[in-house]
Amino acid sequence: MMLKIATTMLILASAQAQGAAPCPLPAAWSGWAKPTSHFAAKSPDMRFALKPGEAVRLTLALAKAVKLALKPAREPKAGSFEGLAAIDVSRAGKLSVALSSATYVDLIRDGKALKSAGHERLADCTGIHKTVTFDVTPGRYIIQLIGAPERTVEMMTAG
Q1: Which strand ranges, in their side-by-side order, compose the sheet holding 118-120?
Q2: Strand locations in the chain (E)
Q3: How many Cβ atoms sit within 10 Å of the Cβ of residue 45?
Q4: Cβ–Cβ contacts within 10 Å for residue 88, how many?
Q5: How far apart are CA 83 and CA 40, in angstroms?
C-alpha cells in the first residue's frame, strides 16, 4: 500500500514538473543568459563603453577603491561593492537597466543623476532582480552601481 502511494505521488510530481510553465523572460532581455565578463571602471574617466543590449557580468571593487561620478543618494553598506560603466545612447527614448542583485543604480549625464522613470521586479526564476528605466537623449551616460552585496553583478540594458 505504501509503495502504491509513493509511486502515485512520484507520477503526480513528474506530471506537474513537465506541465510547468517556462520562466517568463521578456523579449527585451533575451540575451540575459549569455553575459560577457568585464571589470567595472573605478573612476568616471573611462574610455570604453558597453554596447546597448549586451548582457555583462561586471566585477566590482570594494567601495573605498572607487571614485564615483556622483555622490549617491543613499549611503552603501560597509563592505559593499561599487563600479562604473559607460554606455553610448544613439537615440532618444527609454533605457532600462536590468540587474541581478539588490544593487543601486544611477544613470549620470553631464554630472547629474537622471530621475528614474520606473522600476520593475521580474520573476525570481529569470535571474533578473530588478529593472530601472530612464528617459534618455543621445549621448554618453555613466552607469554607477552602488551597494552591491557581491563582487560580481550581471547587468543588461535595453531601450
Answers
A1: 36-39, 56-59, 152-158, 93-99, 130-136, 118-120
A2: 36-39, 56-59, 61-62, 81-89, 93-99, 104-109, 112-113, 118-120, 130-136, 139-148, 152-158
A3: 11
A4: 12
A5: 5
- What pLDDT tens digit does each residue of the chain (159 aa) get? 444 433 333 333 443 445 556 777 778 888 888 899 999 999 999 888 998 898 999 999 999 899 999 998 778 888 999 999 999 999 999 999 999 999 999 999 999 999 999 888 878 888 889 999 999 999 999 999 999 999 999 999 998
Question: Which grid coordinates belong to 79?
Answer: 563592505
Angle, alpha carbons 136-24-39 (nearest 5°): 50
Which residue bears the cell 566585477? 59
C-beta of residue 67 within 8 angstroms of C-beta of residue 127: no
- Smallest CA-to-CA distance from 158 within 33, 53, 88 is with 53
What kind and span of H or E run contains 7? helix 2-19
Chain-centroid distance, C-alpha 47:
22
- What DSSP designation does 134 have? E
Cell of 60: 566590482
Q: Please count the residues of the chain.
A: 159
Q: 9 exposed, middle or buried (CB, 10 Å; 0-12, 13-18, 19+)?
A: exposed
Widest pairwise Cα distance in the chain:
73
